[in-house]
Amino acid sequence: MHEYSYTSINVLDLEESFRPEFTHEETVEALRSACETNGFLIIQNHGISSELIKETERQAKGFFAQPYETKALSKAPTGVFRGYTPVEKSALSLSRDVETPPDVCEIFSMNRFDDRGVAEKCGLKEGREDFFAPNIWPSNLPGFKETLQSYYAAMEGLADHLMRLSALALDLEENWFKDKITDHITNLTLNYYPKIETDLPDDQLRRGEHSDWGTLTILHHDGESGLQIKDSSGDWVDVPSVPDSFVVNLGDLMARWTNDRWKSTVHRVVPPKDLSRDRLSLVFFHQPAYDAVIECIPTCVSSENPSRYEPVTSGEWILEMQKKTTY
């Protein structure tokens, strides 16, 4: 495992961490350092095939290239966070109670609840039908559904691996998180940022400043710049584009779990200097099981450092955030 540094963002090579005989010590220490510093890192040799990534990007671009009327066939009813969300119909800054113009971003989201048995295992019950609604697949794009499902499954495996490493980095047993994330409720979201053809207000961004809401986020983008994090001094720092990598960042529930030992850092996506350039990202928002109770883990609390947060359930937390940020 090698560790590099681009400004304040660590780049970690995970190759050796997949070997059964590897002790993980160097990887775990590097992960711990990144999570305690700013909660952002870039991972290489992550085990996800470049062919799958490229095909997922191709399918995503094909979807967003369609006329609005066609994409709108995949819009969800109010309260269902699946399918297509048009540009300027969400504003992530609202999750922080910051009023800004809506984000210049189109979205397609999916989860894993096409199978009712899976939905029931993950928490479907009376009153939760909208949250556990099946996906809204376009019918005119051959391979779109199958490709996204394959990518989702690959991300599940990578997220599980990262959560095991996270447990070790927090001085827990390797599978400490397992019963809390096996029935996860993760959304995979395709974010498409179209080229900008008119002047924007100064406070309108492609994605307004926000922190993510779950445990961790695994993001792949097409190389276009724009993602920035806010550092401890309040300055915005560009997240570098590193070939064949994923950006990983921690979310609010991981910060709550660790009593703020690990950071859920505010970030945003700004327009490019060349407004004619579009941008695509594939974002896996890892979220614990709906009924998982998120409370401070044993190694992050003491009589001298009591818990800073009241317990919260994963599903209630994510649902509140989804409602706050969607028009």
Secondary structure elements and their pairing?
Layout: E1 3-6, E2 9-13, H1 25-37, E3 40-44, H2 50-64, H3 68-71, E4 83-85, E5 106-110, H4 116-122, H5 144-169, H6 178-181, E6 187-193, E7 207-210, E8 216-221, E9 227-230, E10 236-238, E11 245-250, H7 252-257, E12 267-269, E13 279-286, E14 293-294, E15 312-313, H8 314-325
Parallel strand pairs: 2-3
Antiparallel strand pairs: 1-2, 3-11, 4-5, 5-6, 6-13, 7-12, 8-11, 8-13, 9-10, 9-12, 14-15
Helix pairs in contact: 1-5, 2-5
Description:
- This protein is α+β, with helices and mostly antiparallel strands and 327 residues long.
- The protein has a single domain, classed as Jelly Rolls, CATH 2.60.120.
- The chain has a 9-stranded mixed beta sheet.
- It has 8 helices and 15 strands.
- α1 crosses α5.
- 27% of the residues lie in helices and 20% in strands.
- Residues 1-6 have low confidence and may be disordered.
